[in-house]
Design goal:
Chain B: It holds the Pfam family BPD_transp_1. The complex is a heterodimer of chains A (361) and B (291). In chain A, 25% of the residues lie in helices and 34% in strands. Chain A is α+β, with helices and mostly antiparallel strands. The two termini of chain A are 49 Å apart. Classes of the chains: A alpha+beta (361), B mainly alpha (291). The A-B interface holds A 50-52, 71-73, 77-79, 81-89, 95, 98-99, 101-103, 130-132, 136, 139, 143, 146, 150, 163 and B 181, 183-184, 186-194, 197, 201-202, 205-206, 285-290.
């Protein structure tokens, strides 16, 4: 069990800076998920914690000890890889016991710990099989088994579920959640799947281009995103962004609107705006509701609708030709070409500065 | 496109026919060698003008084999060759795979430059370095049971040591190692393995195919050694099989005995090949990484 602390951590490959100064403090026993789009540096950051990549600058502490220069085995971490990385020439038993064998553990200790791991992961019957005789989910279980036998201070997961099919992924997700409650060890988990991030994490770290965009509890990030990137990254379908004009500015509240949007008052949340300037209004598709003609805040025409049973996702074209996605919590038929008016709770909307606007002023 | 069953059968037949013909081209010299080894010289030479050359007909006996054993110490030559070849193959697999492991997995200064130099040595023919190498080995020291010696001529080691490391074998290993899933190496590192443990617990057990390939290539090179042992070994007791062939090419070439000798020295090659072929097939296991 250990805390993990990254202070001003940077990583460069030649002249290209991949990680541009990251500060994260992970508490003992915490489950932290790194999310971000491909190439954001989340896997690199995890590999730096594991000791598989050098740290160009900054310090990394595990359990209060600076480990920058330590070999992977001296850091007390265990890692589960996306491709399972179990040894094909060993049986499941030998795979799980690999770390113990390397550490020179006695036969009795190995037997006991392998049995314990097999019991936790419910794979006692697979111990004498070879990896080629296992399914993808079972292989990943072996990889997890190998990680838990050494009782590491920190578990690292590098997209462990992305090679599994959807049904299995859900099972394994729940299993990892259960494992986490059972072991109570610090876990760092990298994924690009926001469902995994939202369901597993105590805290999520959203990364983009090697920088931390926001750190916080899943619901905090969902309801109070620090910036437009986080707002758009979490939630499915993703948040709608409307280009709006700032009509009035009154302390913490701005009056905004455009051709398709009736003027509304939205909290600025201390972000910088300029009267008569541009801004971006973020509204989650789930917050939109259809209303009778004349009462709507947004006006559009149905372009396409998808009925999912529990939900209907409607693609609308607004008056200014921009697209808007609405997700209604019911099964309803929307014919393409029909005019539709929508409303939403303005307290749930987010106003973001227009980056282009900020740069020019 | 649907497969036409008739057409498919015909194509299969033609394919097998072509393959059989090609196989025959390779087999005929062997068949000729083995058949001729049982025939007296007069019949052997007469048969070369007809298909009888490939058939065990006429005056068949083991006389050529007795003759070959009388003319040359066949057993000693085969033993020498097997000893030199076997030792070189084993040492070569060890040394070259260790070198390749370093080139493929470790990070050190000058690694890539050195690897390109190693690969560049492939284009240098042995004949060009034979004389400098001879001068070198003739002056090398050796500490044996009876004290310090200078010069390695007329030994087994002079036939072994210069052939252990070679660019081709290292290159084969490097290419194979680089194609192994990197996660397996990383996983073993994270699990606490040092590089030596990664080498013998993870990389080597997964290297069956390349070990078999490198061993076969090295075996063929070593078993067929002629020029090098000819110039560094003058004593009969260290002579390998190919140099021993010279015993049969004197005033009157005894062709039947030559064929008998060649048949005898081919046996270890066949045994070695059959053994490794099994190892080769057994080593083709599925990987533990999702492909």
């Amino acid at each position: 069990m250990a805390e993990v602390s990254l202070k001003g951590v940077k990583k460069s490959f030649g002249r290209v800076e991949i990680i541009k100064g990251v500060d994260i403090h992970i508490n003992d026993g915490e489950f932290v998920v790194f999310v971000g789009p491909s190439g954001c540096g989340k896997s690199t950051l995890l590999r730096m914690i594991a000791g598989l990549e050098d740290i160009t600058e900054g310090t990394l502490e595990i359990g209060g000890r600076v480990v920058n220069q330590l070999q992977p085995k001296q850091r007390g971490v265990a890692m589960v890889f996306q491709n399972y990385a179990i040894f094909p020439h060993m049986t499941v038993r030998e795979n799980i016991a690999f770390g113990l064998t390397i550490a020179g553990a006695s036969r009795q200790e190995k037997q006991q710990k392998v049995a314990e791991a097999a019991r936790i992961l419910q794979m006692e019957h697979l111990l004498d099989r070879r990896p080629s005789q296992l399914s993808g989910g079972q292989r990943q279980r072996v990889a997890i088994g190998r990680a838990i036998t050494r009782k590491p201070a920190v578990f690292l997961f590098d997209e462990p579920l992305s090679n599994l099919d959807a049904a299995l992924r859900m099972d394994m997700r729940m299993e990892i959640g259960r494992l986490r409650r059972q072991l109570g060890t610090t876990m760092i988990y990298v994924t690009h799947d926001q469902v995994e991030a939202m369901t597993l994490a105590d805290r999520i770290v959203v990364l983009k281009d090697g920088q931390v965009m926001q750190i916080g509890a899943p619901m905090e990030l969902y309801h109070e995103p620090a910036n437009r990137f986080v707002a758009g990254f979490l939630g499915a379908p993703s948040m709608n962004f409307l280009n709006v004009d700032v009509l009035e500015l009154d302390g913490e509240v701005a009056m905004v609107g455009n051709q398709s949007l009736e003027p509304i008052r939205v909290a600025t949340r201390r972000r910088p705006f300029r009267k008569d300037g541009k801004a971006i209004l973020g509204v989650r598709p789930q917050y939109l509701r259809p209303v009778h003609s004349g009462k709507g805040l947004l006006h559009g025409i149905v372009a396409h609708a998808e009925r999912l049973g529990s939900e209907t996702v409607v693609d609308l074209t607004l008056r200014d030709e921009r697209e808007l996605i609405a997700a209604f919590n019911e099964d309803k038929v929307f014919e393409p070409g029909v005019a539709l008016e929508l409303t939403f709770d303005t307290a749930l909307a987010h106003l973001f500065p227009d980056e282009g606007e900020l740069q020019t002023h | 496109m649907a497969v036409n069953p008739d057409n498919y059968g015909l194509r299969l037949f033609v394919r097998y026919l072509v393959l059989c013909l090609i196989a025959l081209i390779f087999i005929f010299p062997l068949v000729f060698m083995i058949n001729s080894s049982f025939k007296p010289d007069s019949q052997l030479l007469a048969d070369t003008s007809s298909l009888r050359a490939f058939l065990p007909v006429g005056d068949i006996s083991l006389n050529n084999y007795f003759g070959a054993f009388r003319r040359a110490p066949v057993g000693l030559f085969v033993l020498n060759s097997v000893l030199v070849t076997g030792t070189t193959v084993l040492l070569s697999l060890l040394i070259c795979s260790l070198a390749a492991f370093s080139f493929a997995f470790l990070r050190w200064k000058g690694r890539d430059v050195l690897l390109s130099i190693v690969i560049a040595t492939l284009i240098i023919p042995f004949e060009t370095i034979a004389i400098p190498l001879l001068l070198l080995v003739s002056k090398l020291p050796w500490i044996g049971l009876d004290g310090l010696h200078w010069g390695w001529l007329n030994t087994y080691r002079v036939q072994i040591v210069p052939w252990i490391a070679d660019g081709l074998t290292i290159f084969l290993f490097v290419q194979y190692f680089k194609a192994l899933p990197g996660e397996l190496i990383e996983a073993s590192r994270v699990e606490g393995a040092n590089w030596w443990q990664v080498y013998y617990r993870v990389v080597m057990p997964l290297s069956g195919p390349v070990l078999a390939t490198a061993a076969i290539l090295k075996f063929l090179v070593m078993y067929n050694q002629y020029l090098w042992p000819l110039i560094v070994v003058q004593q009969e007791s260290y002579r390998p099989v190919m140099v021993g062939l010279g015993y049969f090419f004197q005033l009157n070439v005894a062709w039947g005995e030559v064929m008998a000798y060649l048949t005898l020295i081919t046996v270890p090659v066949l045994i070695f090949y059959l053994l490794l072929q099994r190892a080769f097939i057994a080593s083709i296991a599925s990987t533990g990484v999702k492909g």
